[in-house]
């Protein structure tokens, strides 16, 4: 299974670093797409538990090791090699692929959403299969939790945009909330920023920064937002890791519910409800059921099925590879 390596010992080879960087590229690209979660990508590609473990390694013991000059110990506690490779990929993916993803969403939205729909649908099935509750009662609890999570995710993605109140405190809070969603499968941090009215501001700074066009206000805004992200990341990652370690089946059921509930936002067939709005980031779309004469119906269905099958085949191949390694 592509998810089965979440409890395996960390691999610190150069080949693993390149793979981790590639995962980071995918996560960075996903995080800038409203409706797709980078946490979903991490879960699909099997680095989710290691990511939570590495982030939650930032504690007082690590700080003590840093202050005492024990750099090797601090790096081991933080799994710094993994975080550096993954974080580098996320930054490059978010910066370099932002334009491409924006182009695909503006000009090929139905097919792009079809691909994400198929990927997340198959991944949600695989995460649900991992629950393995110990009893029938636990299975019922997991199902109920998953359904509630799906309804909650659905309620989130159906919300309209809000007018941001402004101010550094609001920016800090938005950073903390968005980063929690970015590492939570099924809830898009980018979409939450869109609802909170800060998506265009944040992505605008990210686009201007590599070009050297960022102003002092841009840098201050990015610093405050990053601080909020850091605080939210450290606190929320600990909670998620604790839940996965002690209540694995119910937690995975909730994650599965988030992923399935978010599929509403990625339904390929949507009509533009705000035709007078020019900026894609501010547009609202309403899903509809396509008819047999829909021009892109066949392409969208085939794309979703191909992506869905790709995830299932990759999971099957990874399971066989691991079984072969264990037998050897």
Question: Can you tell me about this structure?
Answer:
The chain crosses the membrane at residues 21-48, 80-98, 110-126, 138-157, 169-199, 219-240, 247-267, 295-314. InterPro entries: VCA0040-like (IPR007163). It holds the Pfam family VCA0040-like. This is DUF368 domain-containing protein. With 328 residues, the chain is mainly α. It has one domain (4-327). Helices cover 70% and strands 2% of the residues. The protein has helices spanning 14-31, 38-44, 48-55, 60-67, 71-78, 80-96, 98-107, 109-129, 136-157, 168-182, 189-196, 199-208, 216-246, 248-261, 297-327, and strands spanning 270-272, 285-287. Strands 1-2 form a two-stranded antiparallel ribbon. Helix 7 (98-107) crosses helix 8 (109-129), helix 8 (109-129) runs antiparallel to helix 14 (248-261) and helix 10 packs across helix 13. The longest helix is centred in the C-terminal third of the chain and has 31 residues, at 216-246. It is globular, with a radius of gyration of 20 Å. The mean pLDDT is 77.
